[in-house]
């Protein structure tokens, strides 16, 4: 009987999400956009980038490259769907200032280059550079996030860990 109780205890599979950028981490609630701040697209964090190089935060497959080059979707090997949205209102630039380095369907590893972007250009167009990193299928796939880093982070440092359902 005691064995059954202990065997029924749920064991979590964990997945580490690494920083796709070098910069300052801010809570999603502090992003000046109600859709991201209200977590309507999912759970995550945002980073104010110090340099214009975005790399893969996980091992997985690119599932979406927006035609305006400002956002990338990746499915991790455990099935997390991660949206990285470079800046706010950057869709209006129609790809100007962005150099996409990958294609839909491409397999990626942590640290693989995804997009280079020109921070000075974005600022000159009065665009906010805060970059949300969102798990869009959070409610169906994740049973909790542990943020392991705050403040300034370098790309490829562990950002947070997810308990996978």
UniProtKB/TrEMBL annotation:
Record flagged with keyword Disulfide bond: no
SUPFAM superfamilies for the chain: Duplicated hybrid motif
Gene3D superfamilies in the record: Glucose Permease (Domain IIA)
Pfam families: PTS_EIIA_1
Main location: cytoplasm
Source species, domain of life: Bacteria
InterPro entries named in the record: Dup_hybrid_motif, PTS_EIIA_1_perm, PTS_EIIA_component
Keyword Lyase part of the UniProt annotation: no
Stretches assigned to the PTS EIIA type-1 domain: 33-137
Subcellular localization, as worded in the UniProt entry: Cytoplasm
PANTHER family per record: PTS SYSTEM GLUCOSE-SPECIFIC EIIA COMPONENT (PTHR45008:SF1)
Protein name: PTS system glucose-specific IIA component
């Amino acid at each position: 009987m005691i064995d059954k109780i202990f065997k029924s205890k749920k064991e979590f599979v964990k997945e580490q999400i690494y920083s796709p950028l070098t910069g300052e981490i801010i809570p999603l609630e502090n992003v000046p956009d109600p859709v991201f701040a209200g977590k309507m697209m999912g759970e995550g964090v945002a980073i104010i980038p110090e340099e214009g190089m975005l790399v893969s935060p996980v091992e997985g497959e690119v599932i979406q490259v927006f035609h305006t080059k400002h956002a990338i979707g990746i499915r991790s090997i455990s099935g997390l769907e991660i949206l990285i949205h470079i800046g706010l209102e950057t869709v209006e630039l129609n790809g100007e200032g962005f150099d996409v380095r990958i294609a839909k369907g491409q397999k990626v590893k942590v640290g693989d280059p995804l997009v280079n972007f020109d921070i000075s250009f974005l600022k000159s167009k009065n665009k906010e550079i805060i970059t949300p990193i969102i798990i869009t299928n959070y409610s169906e796939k994740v049973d909790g996030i542990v943020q392991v880093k705050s403040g300034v982070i370098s790309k490829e440092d562990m950002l947070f860990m997810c308990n996978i359902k």
